Amino acid sequence: MYENMVTARHYEERLQEEYLEGKQPAFDISAGPIPGELHLAAGHEASGAGVCQHLRDDDTVTAPHRPHHIAIAKGVDLKRMTAEIFGRETGLSKGKGGHMHLFDPEVNFACSGIIAEGCPPAVGAGLAAKKRNTDSVAVAFLGEGAIDQGAFLESLNMASVQNLPVVFVVEDNDWAISMPKHRITDVANGARRADGFDMPGERVDADDAVAVYEAARAAVGRARDRNGPSLLEVQVHRRMGHFMGDPEGYRPDEDKAAAERRDSIERLEADLRGHDVDDETIDDLRDRAHERVEEAIEWAKDQPEPEPADAYEDVFVNPASGVTDSEPSVAETGGDD
Ligand SMILES: Cc1ncc(C[n+]2csc(CCOP(=O)(O)OP(=O)(O)O)c2C)c(N)n1
Ligand SMILES: [Mg+2]
After folding, report:
1. What does the pLDDT look like over 185-235, one tens digit per residue?
2. For residues 72 and 80, is the Cβ–Cβ distance under 8 A?
3. Strand arrangement of the beta sheet that strand 109-111 belongs to
4. Whose CA is nearest to atom 20 of ligand 1?
């Protein structure tokens, strides 16, 4: 988990440097090697690592617009993910998705810039696992700013009433762009929402990555054992602006300073030392993480850019092309659910 979290943090530090190239002095979002928005997840690492540690490649994960730490923890190909972020042809989506739309079918990972959008597909993956009688599970990550979306609440209900192997993970960083959590809900402990759907709910602090790991073990285990869905709310910290270039004028200095003080990576490192893990081992883990990041970034920057003529390829689908006469309809199969 430590290596994983250090990889995610270093990856974003490096992306930040690359992103800023050519964008200043007057911030030009379309300039530089990574054009467009970039939402960094520094301070969220323990959530991705603690949860995904329990997952296999055949388990599904959907993530929101702040996805890097989750994608890394799920085992998404780091080189192809980086090429995607740099808009290169060999990227996961041939450079057409960008950092909010990473998609890796090898490890069943997808993310979206539409908040709470990942919840219904995760429920679909859970339903597929149930119907196919496999023991795979699905996890939907979302931010606390998305908890009043119908897509989230309807997904909780569907997962509950169908007893599906789905875990919903709310990453509560107290902010939805410039909107503090207390202005969107009176329920400070979001895990209590689980009660309304008769499923277990737990709130855990990401300061302690091992506590996230333990809570996730219970939730993922429940799903894998076919005992139904769970809701996990993880208190994380947004160490950065909402997106790169966000001047954060709305945010009290002390709030940001507190986020910087509460670093789950430092704490996990201290825990490891407390368990007699020596400096050399910690340095090795860190070096390995840094090397992997450098390799991925170097590789991605060397990749070709897509041909402008291919801009529309794989983007639009002829709605008629996927439908065949032999495809049985739900009515024909009778679908028991
Ligand atoms: C359906 C929808 N509405 C609005 C937006 C615009 N939007 C992008 S991020 C965001 C706030 C997200 O906050 P949160 O879910 O807490 O995630 P965080 O950015 O804090 O990780 C909003 C409203 C969107 N992407 N999708
Ligand atoms: Mg938030």
Report:
1. 999 999 999 999 999 999 999 999 999 999 999 999 999 999 999 999 999
2. no
3. 103-104, 109-111, 60-63, 138-143, 166-172, 230-235, 201-205
4. 176
Read off the pLDDT of residues 58-100 as tens digits, 9 standing for 90 and up: 999 999 999 999 999 999 999 999 999 999 999 999 999 999 9
Q: Is the pTM of this model over 0.85?
A: yes
Element spanning 205, H or E: strand 201-205
Q: CA-to-CA distance for 84 and 91, rounded, in angstroms?
A: 4
Cα 60 to Cα 263: distance, rounded to the nearest angstrom? 28
Burial class (CB in 10 A: 0-12, 13-18, 19+), 171: buried
Task: Please give the distance, rounded to the nearest whole angstrom, from the Cα atom of residue 113 to the centre of ligand 1.
Answer: 8
Nearest CA to 51 out of 138, 135, 113 is that of 138
Strands 166-172, 138-143: pairing kind: parallel
Whole-Å CA distances, 200 to 156, 166, 192, 196, 230? 11, 12, 9, 10, 5
Sign of the CA dihedral 37, 78, 61, 95? positive
- Which two three-digit tokens encode residue 27? 């911030």
Other beta carbons within 10 angstroms of residue 334's beta carbon come to 7
Q: Note the ligand closest to the C-alpha atom of 64.
A: 1
Rounded Cα distance between 168 and 145, Å, is 14
- From 169, 177, 183, 184, give the residue whose CB has the most ligand 1 atoms within 8 Å, as the site to mutate: 177
pLDDT at residue 326 greater than cutoff 90 = no
Instruction: Please choose, from the candidates 166, 157, 139, the residue with its C-alpha nearest in 3D space to the C-alpha of residue 228.
Output: 166
Q: What is the pLDDT of residue 316?
A: 79
